[in-house]
Design goal:
This protein is an alpha+beta fold. It has helices at residues 26-33, 97-104, 114-127, 133-140, 150-159, 168-171, 173-182, 203-212, 227-230, 266-273, 278-284, 290-293, 298-304, 311-317, 413-419, 426-432, 436-439, 450-469; strands spanning 2-3, 5-10, 13-18, 52-59, 62-69, 82-84, 187-192, 195-199, 217-219, 238-241, 251-253, 257-261, 321-325, 330-334, 339-341, 344-345, 352-359, 365-371, 382-391, 394-403, 410-411.
């Protein structure tokens, strides 16, 4: 069954929009069509959080609340969800407990950023009864304030700890679930002034669409794709969203492998990877913001092939593989062979990423570091990732990968060659770093100079060596 109408829940009613503009953002719909202006536009690229809204998503018989950046989310992606705005928090002329906390602790000066902060705190309160420092910092990492300062906002967040969730959303939850279940689970096919949007529910239907529209832009999260509209002022003619295909949203694991589906969010992935690779988790926690990780995917990060994509050097050093699906067959690539040149990969027209496979080599020692100007919500200047197999103080295997050092995320072949079968010693690493400029020729740009990047890359390799040598949270196998 196919529909040209998106449906979503807003203010306890099901809204229907026939053939909406696929290039229209949720933010522009809220401000221009709904005429609700509490949600603001700051950066138009998902970096400041002024546009933060909350989506309620049905998960069996419960509702999951997620913050997203409305400025970089296309309107058709609202289909099947509950839209919650800052205006919805007031009930019977009384402010929500989160709003009261912001007032009580003086969490606002100019007020421009305040709606976004409030929505982030609202989602945090919905998802956690007990709130600690880590939860607060993650919830607020994607919201920037230039005048209030964060202390009073953090104090407001702390005051919500262990308070009973008795708001009108909680009281109306059964009704909300009933209304969300009324929205038909069908394929979406939209056409608006020559622009098309497809959201198939199955892989066979996806293949049919890609066969007919091989030049379509594939949406898997869309935190990068949307910038073509918001920043470059382009019109995207055809968009094919993978996000409605349940068979692409999965995490499978056994003793040797983790496999992640193409539409699994970075947030869901970060909570799994923590058990296996703590450094991967630590880098992911600094990937964009919670709003970005709630919708962004590893498959999307790989497909955009950005030289500063944070997950890419980590996946390279872990010898990850990607499963590519075409119209007729599947192919498996080593990620190390997948990137061709700047923003270009071996992904051909009509193909899409099905999943990513990460080996669990339990004897290996894995380290990863992100260097950026800000700790949160910032792009890497350099990202380094290292995996070593060391036995009897000898380096049996070495995988060294960097982002921000080349036009593609890349393994350091010469450094690896000089490390393998060598003694695990300071002298070995001293010799190996001399090959850094043989493996990489980084550029000067606004984030860092060539010399800075080369120096930092060398230092990160040494940092990994010293942490392993000092057995900092490490066990070397013998």
């Amino acid at each position: 069954m196919v529909s040209n109408t998106i449906q979503f829940l807003f203010s306890n009613k099901i809204y229907k929009i026939k053939n909406p503009d696929p290039n229209k953002t949720i933010l522009n719909y809220i401000r221009n069509d709904l005429k609700l202006t509490g949600t603001k536009e700051g950066c138009a690229e998902g970096g400041c959080g002024a546009c933060t809204i909350v989506l309620g998503e049905l998960n069996k018989s419960t509702i999951i609340y997620k913050t997203i950046n409305a400025c970089i989310s296309f309107l058709p992606t609202l289909n099947g969800k509950q839209l919650i705005l800052i205006e919805d928090l007031v009930h019977e002329n009384k402010p929500h407990m989160v709003q009261e906390a912001m007032v009580k602790f003086h969490g606002s000066q100019c007020g421009f950023c305040t709606p976004g902060f409030t929505m982030s705190l609202f989602s945090m309160k919905k998802n956690y009864k007990l709130i600690n420092k880590e939860i607060i910092e993650e919830a607020l990492s994607g919201n920037l304030c230039r005048c209030t300062g964060y202390r009073p906002i953090i104090d407001a967040a702390k005051s919500l700890n262990n308070k009973k969730d008795k708001d009108h959303f909680k009281k109306n939850q059964k009704r909300t679930i009933q209304l969300l279940k009324k929205i038909k689970d069908v394929d979406i096919e939209i056409e608006h002034q020559g622009r098309k949007f497809f959201a198939p529910k199955t892989i066979p239907n996806l293949k049919k669409i890609l066969k007919k529209y091989p030049n379509a832009k594939i949406l898997s999260g869309g935190t990068d794709l949307s910038l073509e509209v918001t920043k470059f002022r382009k019109n995207i003619k055809t968009i094919v969203s993978l996000n409605s295909i349940n068979k692409l949203n999965f995490i499978k694991k056994n003793k040797n492998l983790i496999e992640i589906g193409a539409t699994t969010s970075l947030f869901d992935f970060q909570n799994l990877i923590k058990k296996y690779f703590r450094d991967f988790y630590d880098v992911l926690k600094r990937y964009g913001s919670l709003q970005i990780r709630n919708v962004g995917t590893i498959a999307g990060n790989i497909a955009t092939a950005s030289p500063i994509g944070d997950t890419l050097p980590l996946l390279l050093s872990l010898d990850a593989k990607i499963v590519i699906q075409g119209i007729n067959k599947k192919k498996v690539y080593s990620l190390n062979q997948f990137f061709i040149s700047y923003r270009k990969t071996k992904l051909k027209k009509g193909e899409f990423i099905n999943s990513i496979k990460i080996p669990l080599n339990k004897e290996n020692i894995f380290k990863a570091y992100k260097i950026s100007k800000r700790f949160d919500d910032d792009i890497s200047s350099v990202c380094g990732s290292f995996s070593f197999l060391i036995k009897k103080n000898k380096i049996i295997k070495a995988s060294v990968a960097y982002g921000g050092m080349s036009e593609i995320p890349k393994r350091a072949a010469m450094i690896e060659k000089n490390l393998i079968n060598s003694e695990f010693s300071e002298n070995t690493f001293n010799k190996a770093i001399n090959f850094m400029d043989k493996d990489f020729s980084p550029l000067d740009d606004m984030r860092a100079s060539r010399n800075y990047r080369l120096t930092v890359a060398k230092n990160l390799l040494f940092k990994a060596f010293y942490e392993i040598k000092d057995k900092k949270n490490i066990r070397i196998h013998s």
